[in-house]
């Protein structure tokens, strides 16, 4: 072999080795770069930005994984489901974490994790119209589905198998809210939505309900780029998800993001949407002012005020509590409120009272549990909350976690339990509902504010509402 050919062969071998190294171990690349790149979609169930920074179930799950790896998380957004998988195909992201179901077609092309949640495809319709009970009932109806979704593939399979007349419109994008908007406004008759997405957003569309399930329960997984160089990273992800499942952190994360979504009836949600339009605009600036004074999230203060009085400054209960924050006479006196029917004084009194309670809780209770526990005490008092926390500990729960105390609170109404407590009977079930309702209102106000307004722009309260409730006809982008 000539020296020239020998040098050429050595060069080709070196290039092959370099190429092999660049694809040999994605996990090592992540650790070396100190960065985990995760692609997701912008939605209240996955990933979004609020004034506190990045948020959402998938973001928080990915953040925990990045912390377990000892690297930084780089969260990126794709604006369609196909765009998510294109990012993986091009190896522009290490993981796709976007509430994605496991399908045969996807698993044939991409690596995936073990399942970490389950979901059921739902066919959603607008109440007041004929409710379809199955595929035979949807002929002639305008059905919408996200382009590139597993639901679109399911419809294709059904079409070729037994329903050749089945038709639908594939909507490009990655936000199921657009599908719900279309059905709510009447520009579509039905839509296919995953159960977790609909449960999270149903309160915004109180006229929508489930008609029937489209198929059986599906697994939710993370997807990874193709290639065996991702095996080590997938193994670490699987071990991480198993650990979270075993130690209860995965359940806590689900409760934190979704635990408040089934509290209200559809009627209650519709009333809330109507009051956002009719009442909130008159008090939004005042609520913001007081929230700023007391360093509270204004969405939270607004949610408390709605739970207490439906934003009615002259509200009065049979027990004598009055005003927008429904303060008792002793509480008003303690907080320096002279006129409980003055909305500014009432808001200040309620904000000050909540801050005082939150400050008096044990220092090792972390957020957001600290706020939820403080709200429970706001409703039934610190003494009864402490009884509930003691009971929680005795029953093997964690008295620092709202999800555990939530289960215990109703026991304060049962003699077999409250007779063992220091302060006795309390309407614990009412306190539990009080907090869960506030969490529900709070999440709606936060999400709609974030999604409807550009940073730095003044709030238009009308943007809290779905298009149909704003008196507008939805226009697809």
* Number of domain units: 3
Main sheet? Answer: 6 strands, mixed
Mean pLDDT: 84
At the fold tier of CATH, the topology name of the largest domain is Lysozyme
Report the span from N to C terminus.
65 Å
The portion of residues assigned to helices is 40-55%
Quick one: overall form? globular
Task: Specify the CATH class of the largest domain.
Answer: Mainly Alpha
Strand content: 5-15%
What is the β-strand count?
A: 13
Question: Architecture of the largest domain, according to CATH?
Answer: Orthogonal Bundle
Give me the secondary-structure category.
alpha/beta
Extract low-pLDDT stretches: 12-22, 453-477
Count of helical regions: 20
Radius of gyration: 26 Å
């Amino acid at each position: 072999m000539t020296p020239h050919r020998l040098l050429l062969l050595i060069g080709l071998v070196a290039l092959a080795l370099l190429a092999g190294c660049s694809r040999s171990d994605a996990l090592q690349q992540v650790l070396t770069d100190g960065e985990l790149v995760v692609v997701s979609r912008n939605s209240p169930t996955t990933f979004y930005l609020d004034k506190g920074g990045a948020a959402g179930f998938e973001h928080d799950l990915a953040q925990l994984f990045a912390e377990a790896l000892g690297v930084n998380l780089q969260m990126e957004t794709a604006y369609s489901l196909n765009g998510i998988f294109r990012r993986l195909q091009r190896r522009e992201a290490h993981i796709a974490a976007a509430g994605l179901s496991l399908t045969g077609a996807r698993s044939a092309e991409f690596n995936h994790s073990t399942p970490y949640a389950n979901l059921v495809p739902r066919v959603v319709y607008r109440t007041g119209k004929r409710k379809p009970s199955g595929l035979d009932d949807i002929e002639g109806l305008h059905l919408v589905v996200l382009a590139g979704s597993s639901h679109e593939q399911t419809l294709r399979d059904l079409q070729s198998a037994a329903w050749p007349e089945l038709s639908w419109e594939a909507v490009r994008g990655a936000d199921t809210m657009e599908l719900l908007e279309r059905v709510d406004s009447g520009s579509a008759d039905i839509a296919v939505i995953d159960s977790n997405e609909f449960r999270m957003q149903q309160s915004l569309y109180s006229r929508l309900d489930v008609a029937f399930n489209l198929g059986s329960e599906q697994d939710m997984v993370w997807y990874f780029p193709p290639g065996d160089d991702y095996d080590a990273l997938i193994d670490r992800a699987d071990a991480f998800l198993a650990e979270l499942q075993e130690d209860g952190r995965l359940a806590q994360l689900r409760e934190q993001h979704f635990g408040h979504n089934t509290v209200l009836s559809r009627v209650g949600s519709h009333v809330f949407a109507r009051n956002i339009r009719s009442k909130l605009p008159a008090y939004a600036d005042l609520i913001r002012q007081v929230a700023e004074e007391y360093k509270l999230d204004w969405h939270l203060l607004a949610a408390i005020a709605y739970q207490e009085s439906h934003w009615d400054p002259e509200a009065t209960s049979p027990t004598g509590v009055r005003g927008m924050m429904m303060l008792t006479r002793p509480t008003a006196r303690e907080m320096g409120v002279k006129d409980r029917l003055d909305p500014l004084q009432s808001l200040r009194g309620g904000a000050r009272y909540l801050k005082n309670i939150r400050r008096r809780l044990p220092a090792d209770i972390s957020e957001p549990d600290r706020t939820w526990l403080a709200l429970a005490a706001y409703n039934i008092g610190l003494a009864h909350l402490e009884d509930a926390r003691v009971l929680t500990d005795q029953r093997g729960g964690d008295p620092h976690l709202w999800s555990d105390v939530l289960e215990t609170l109703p026991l304060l109404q049962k003699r077999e339990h409250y007779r063992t407590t220091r302060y006795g009977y309390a309407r614990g079930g009412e306190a539990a509902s009080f907090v869960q309702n506030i969490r529900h209102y709070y999440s709606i106000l936060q999400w709609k504010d974030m999604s409807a307004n550009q940073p730095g722009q003044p709030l238009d309260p009308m943007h809290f509402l779905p298009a149909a409730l704003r008196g507008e006809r939805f226009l697809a982008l």
